[in-house]
Amino acid sequence: MAGSSIGKNIVLTTWGESHGKALGVVVDGFPAGMKLDEEDIQKFLDRRKPGTSPATTPRKEDDKVEILSGVFEGKTTGTPISLMVRNTSQISADYSEIANYYRPGHADYGFDKKYGFRDYRGGGRSSGRETIGRVAAGALCSKLLSEMGITVCAYTIAIGDIEVDYSKFDRAAILKTPTAMPDVDADKRAMELIQNAREKQDSLGGIIECQITGVPAGIGDPVFDKLDALLSRALMSIGAVKAVEIGDGIRVSAYNGSYNNDVFTTAGGVVFKETNHSGGILGGMSDGDKIVVRAYVKPTPSIAKTQHTVNKAGENIEINIKGRHDPVVVPRAVVVVEAMCAHTILDLMISNMSSRSSSIIEFYTDGN
Amino acid sequence: MAGSSIGKNIVLTTWGESHGKALGVVVDGFPAGMKLDEEDIQKFLDRRKPGTSPATTPRKEDDKVEILSGVFEGKTTGTPISLMVRNTSQISADYSEIANYYRPGHADYGFDKKYGFRDYRGGGRSSGRETIGRVAAGALCSKLLSEMGITVCAYTIAIGDIEVDYSKFDRAAILKTPTAMPDVDADKRAMELIQNAREKQDSLGGIIECQITGVPAGIGDPVFDKLDALLSRALMSIGAVKAVEIGDGIRVSAYNGSYNNDVFTTAGGVVFKETNHSGGILGGMSDGDKIVVRAYVKPTPSIAKTQHTVNKAGENIEINIKGRHDPVVVPRAVVVVEAMCAHTILDLMISNMSSRSSSIIEFYTDGN
Amino acid sequence: MAGSSIGKNIVLTTWGESHGKALGVVVDGFPAGMKLDEEDIQKFLDRRKPGTSPATTPRKEDDKVEILSGVFEGKTTGTPISLMVRNTSQISADYSEIANYYRPGHADYGFDKKYGFRDYRGGGRSSGRETIGRVAAGALCSKLLSEMGITVCAYTIAIGDIEVDYSKFDRAAILKTPTAMPDVDADKRAMELIQNAREKQDSLGGIIECQITGVPAGIGDPVFDKLDALLSRALMSIGAVKAVEIGDGIRVSAYNGSYNNDVFTTAGGVVFKETNHSGGILGGMSDGDKIVVRAYVKPTPSIAKTQHTVNKAGENIEINIKGRHDPVVVPRAVVVVEAMCAHTILDLMISNMSSRSSSIIEFYTDGN
Amino acid sequence: MAGSSIGKNIVLTTWGESHGKALGVVVDGFPAGMKLDEEDIQKFLDRRKPGTSPATTPRKEDDKVEILSGVFEGKTTGTPISLMVRNTSQISADYSEIANYYRPGHADYGFDKKYGFRDYRGGGRSSGRETIGRVAAGALCSKLLSEMGITVCAYTIAIGDIEVDYSKFDRAAILKTPTAMPDVDADKRAMELIQNAREKQDSLGGIIECQITGVPAGIGDPVFDKLDALLSRALMSIGAVKAVEIGDGIRVSAYNGSYNNDVFTTAGGVVFKETNHSGGILGGMSDGDKIVVRAYVKPTPSIAKTQHTVNKAGENIEINIKGRHDPVVVPRAVVVVEAMCAHTILDLMISNMSSRSSSIIEFYTDGN
Fold it and tell me: What's the predicted TM-score (pTM) here?
């Protein structure tokens, strides 16, 4: 059954494999009239491009995006926007061995059980390269959100046991540090940790946080399409993510209600909350505060160290995985988190346009 | 926009408010031929029924389910199964004040911003009573899964700072302890903590874990419909859940890959994993191991303590919430977690029936 | 797989069988703030109620609707509206024979092949009573459309070979004639034809037309969600409908383009078409003109005449169907057609609210 | 809102404009393991290729398909299959005038009202070239159906007033005659009619029929996802189709029930129907007989004759449409009809695999 689409109003469908001809996304339902060129998308893709620092795989890919449809005279037309990136640096030979065994920590075994066989080259469909489509689509959503004063900003807050110090939060650093940390000191220490892990033929995980500001209250649906439920699905659908939390997240389980409840208050006609334990979401709807969500990322499963596993013939074997791998996927996953959040928010904001019958009536009696 | 449905093959649509006439669910797409009577459902509903212990609200509701359609001669017919529970103990008067202000930690403010007004009685649509429909539907899914040897079992592992000791894990205790903990000692201490919180007019949160055994490898889709992505959405859509994790979850962010990778091994022709950091899910698909998922639940926002907030007129006020509330929702939410997991797993297992063209061809050439 | 829901923004899910406890619909996604009481719905249901004329089955059902959720203080809340009608006049004994054979012209054989067995009482899920939920939901959609100046009006244009004379079109007659024809003369002749068919233990078919006025241009999507594609699906999903046409429909296949093309013209600043062969839809989108759609309805398959068929044991047998049946379903199906059209139009109008990025930006920067 | 996707299990998403860089489709959910190469698809695309006879536009396009993903080692992998055709013969200059006025019979006016502007080159998204993606996807579905003994065969039965004589039905002729008629005599006369229409700067419509054999009984859902409802939507979503009928279709409205009911009978243990007025569908499910569906196609709206219309400035003007157009789209639409039917049938057959709980249990206890 189909499982490569997400969204209700703006539906993203990604396609492509790590070592196939190309990868891409179809963005269906994106509203008409927004200015868009390839550079708008490229600058997002460049943030997840490999080969840019010692923190990433040495595979070199330009990841140049091509807009194939849905844009005319520099503006979106309202029809499907098809975006494609050609693969150029496939070295499939690296992967020929993988065909015969199941890499620990990878989806290989599941693929064979589900489909009967698999495109084993570079992880095939399970490759991180699948996220190219997500990031390209996220660039569009972020752009439209920004025209409404909404900012979506993700960054690394931990790699291994190195954590960002919020008192040193420097937003400008996010796009400059190789770890995408907003704290240059933590970044330095994290890079050392990464270098160390690489030398030990091992890998690291980490934590990504995303803050979304400017979202009006009431976005999201009270039951299954809760804003936090859809954010969770969106983030947990990113390859290596193993946990998602909203606001104070796991910590709230040990709080008292009197502490966890954020007090509503008002000043100058504006309603706001004195604290934000809720992470900007109450009862599945935005509460007007900053939305804060965190994704916990596992260490890259592809490591150079010798590992034990089973082959297709059902024998216990020792393996040494070849190929080019990231010692930690966190820095490159930051923009993926940002993209998925941007899409989720925009999609739910569109849904909210018809929450009230009066809005519909006004829309159609105002000459639309 | 519609947001009260979940699922692709078996679609659940819940409806109803805390203090309306009734609540229910339509289960569309449930396969034909399964034996079903009201008792099968009632025993699940009784696990979330209020008024059964000092850990719950004193509101008394029998929550008797009525099967309105989709069952004939004691078996499901394949057509929509409509299940309804009448509300009988509404005391709306308790809630008249709430109409005019926004309770901290609640969805009130979001509701007003989204819809322009709200059914304020007992939380309306945001009430925990909405989960009646989920639990009723989950009972059906669990029953069919059990006929395939799959068990879905949820339980409380923490309330406040009281944690279950896994070395004392007693599965039989889950249905007997008022906290739904599988450890009678921890249960006793948790009940004391709850009593204490109640006396302080305060509330508690906790953690629910769900284990699913017997799921074959390969269930789930590699991209947006990952098994863990859909489990996350399902669990995060439960009112008070603020974080979800799979397997070692948040802890994996600090692991090394060489530790986190579960080694595949084989003995007697069976492939299995030596460890289960993955929580039974790799690359979005089941890996054949036990599936382990955890939901972090916030403390009940309705507390008797005096609180500050804002009213609809935009004034800062002090409030004392009346009504009947749970000091902790965790024990009653356990069966809701179990229901949502059962539905997610069954729905994805059905999707997998058409993963291979050979399966489809065999199905139709075997005389079906 | 689930198949009892329709719609994208406003999702209708019907449930219930002819001789079960009740039938109903959940309307999810209906916007908040519209005034609604049971009488608004009842007057639609009364148009399809049986037992009101010699043209219908003698089965007596009050078909009183109960609003179970989603309405508070006389207004829709934006949450699911659950509507139910209890069955009161089931005489299942009439149907016990049917369990063992396949009625010609009915779904019995398909049901057994698909599900392995069936609720044979009164057609079970395939009964015309399933449309109660559609009509109830359609009442809501029609009401909101009417607040935007859009009217949806269906009527009978033929029964057997008796056709309405458009020169005698009397809109007021539609709700008065037992055939729902807008022409009292044709109605009289049709009633005679029906009486005649009944005496011969036979049945009749006919044609229903629906006109929708006031729909702005541009509603519908250019590809799979074309306005005419979704209208076709909606109408063909009504039990006895075997053909659907838009505007001049089947006749256009023999036209020349120069005749079929409706000329756009303008006068007083208003753009309009000089003719309406298109039936108000071009390229899948409304063209601003009156939308005209027609459904061709087959004769009731349940006839009293002796018929030949096969039983479950695989024997050729003769049958005489008992039970209470309509000699023609057309008059009662008129309001069903109207309901399905109203829902389709409203659902697509909501979709159009986000067709332009400027509309979204304006919506959110106007303080919504 | 998104509207370029169709299907539940196998979801097709088409993209691309007539004069953009390329057109294509993503086929998501197609089962793994089917042999597939570009030639399998190309032979379907060649049936809709322009420039092959006097019945088509002189625009020359090779329409060479490229498989970008989802196929590995010559077999489908179960992941999204991305198919693309580059546009090579765009002559946009032909269309520059169109930007400023609304062509009669076209979607131009609706596009401008919906989206605020449009890609006017060659009809943009509304071009018949959009169906390239449908045909490519249909090739895949037809191939898998054929492996189950199911044939989907569409052909022209009328162009203008020239109708096929069923007594001369020659299946082999369909792929040979320029009109795709199964009757060489009718084809000759139709080609003369087309030549005549072209000389008069006019255009023609026609009728396409599709027969599907080998479908087991019980496919389709009894309510909104009726087999005929989904076929109708699929066919009516093809640009120029204005009516759809199943079996005897429009004629049944004048039948008596005793004539219209197809008698079930049995011989040699096989159940069959003595007649097929139903067109192989009863109550929304296949009845085991041949499925027969017909689409009525309007005359090409682009004609060379002088026409009157309105321009964007709101003035009444005279126009002469340039560009390369088909005098009749019917012959090239035949394979589109076939593609849409193949997809609809296969998608619903997959849905039926989970109609019975016993099927699911067997699937998972047979070692899958």
Answer: 0.97
